[in-house]
Amino acid sequence: MTYVTPSADRRRLAIDHHDQRGEFAALWLRERSPDADTLDPRTGQRLVEAAELPLELNIHSADVVDGQLYLHFSDGHHTDFDLDTLFDDQAIDPPKRLWNANNAPRPVANFADALQNDTALSDMLESLHRDGFVIVSGVPEETDGMQPLIDRIGPLRRTNWGGIADVKSVADAYDLTMTQRGLEPHTDNPYRDPIPGYIWLHCLTNAAEGGDSTLVDGLMAAQLLRERAPDAYSCLTRVTPSFRYRDDDTDLESEGPLIELDSRGEPVRVRYNNRTERVPALPPEELEVYYAARQAFYQLITGEELTLHLKLDPGQMLIMDNYRLLHGRSAFQLAGGVRHMRQGYVDRDSTASRRRVLQQQLATPQPQGEPA
Asked: If 145 and its partner were Cys, which of 111, 140, 291, 296 is the partner (CB 3.0–4.6 Å)?
């Protein structure tokens, strides 16, 4: 059964539909009316100027017939909503699965399958969204072997490093990534605006001693910090350090809190990059609080409780959510062999768009006689 109940001033409408309940503002329903007078049938873009609708707009009548909600507004407009669609429209992306070292997933995908099959590509992108990373096997052991799969999702993000760049030890390294040094868990390129969304790390050879990759779920770390040290958590959501990178040809700077919240007050992004962080000259008492909070967070993200250790084999690729996961590596010795990775970036918007469009396409029945 479905029940609709206008508020006393008729400017809100409570809807009980099966096992779902919601309260909707009349003005919100009016500006999202799914009719051709309000929304363009092809693009879904709004045709009326929402800011010109009367602020005192209310609902004259609301009726439900066969799963359709029929509304008559005080400005004379009539429209109807499919109730299932109305509630589906309130749904956000599927939830992320937070993890620690003990329950860490091992999401896997096959390069050729994802390249040739939309269902396999969709599964890979859903794993990436849910778990923050996915390990792809069967990547051609060539310099730009991952490029064809990137092309299936979105454009390669070019930076001052170029497109797909080498990650290996070199003489006179201009970045610590290019040394044999171990790297603490970190966010890549927090000095860019926007920060690259996804890191693609392709292994060509990994015979060196050491050089294991490490992953930490930064959102899990934020959640644990909120539970165990709420004052530290609050501090890291408020203080906004900057991050800066400079070389002979590049000068990049951006800023943001180590733990960023969304509109609901929930952690949505983490930043940590000891090498490039620049904390503002706050009053000493505020800096003391920040430094203690940062240390508490650091102890979490470097502890074995949250650290997943991986060693990629040649032909494997690790795709990581750079807004969520913190990644690092152990030091390596070239006496044991060569460690040669290739790395590229793909932005979040194109990745999220591809995932959602594939999901919608695969959920839509194909006409008979047409291949799926």
From this structure: 140
Task: Please spell the DSSP secondary structure of 181-228, one letter per residue.
Answer: --EEEE-S-TTSSSPPSEEEEEEEEE-SEE--EEEEEHHHHHHHHHHH
Percent over 90 (pLDDT), the chain: 80
The mean pLDDT of 187-205, rounded to a whole number, is: 96
Cα maximum dimension of the chain: 79
pLDDT of residue 172: 47
**Tens digits of residue pLDDT in 275-310:** 999 999 999 999 999 999 999 999 999 999 999 999
pTM of the model: 0.88
Domain with 124 in it: 108-358
Question: For the chain, give me the number of helices (H) and strands (E)?
Answer: 9, 24
- For residues 322 and 328, the answer to whether their CB atoms sit within 8 Å is no
57: closest CA among 31, 39, 75? 75
Assign 3-state DSSP to the chain and report helix, strand, coil percentages, each to 5: 25, 30, 40
Give the C-alpha separation, 113 to 121, whole Å. 7
∠ at Cα 351 (89, 90), nearest 5°? Answer: 10
Q: Which amino acid is at 51?
A: A
Q: For residue 88, what pLDDT band results from cuts at 50, 70 and 90?
A: confident
d(CA 105, CA 134) in angstroms, rounded, equals 9
Task: Compute the distance between CA of residue 348 and CA of residue 345 in angstroms, rounded to an integer.
Answer: 10
| Tokens 């930043």, residue located | 271
Residue with tokens 């997943």: 308
**Position 12 in a domain:** yes
Distance CA 340, CA 333 (A): 12
From 303, 198, 187, 205, select the one nearest 245 (Cα to Cα). 187
Query: Do the strands 108-110 and 133-137 form a parallel or antiparallel pair, or are they unpaired?
Result: parallel
Residues 250 and 149 in one domain: yes
224 shares a domain with 300? yes
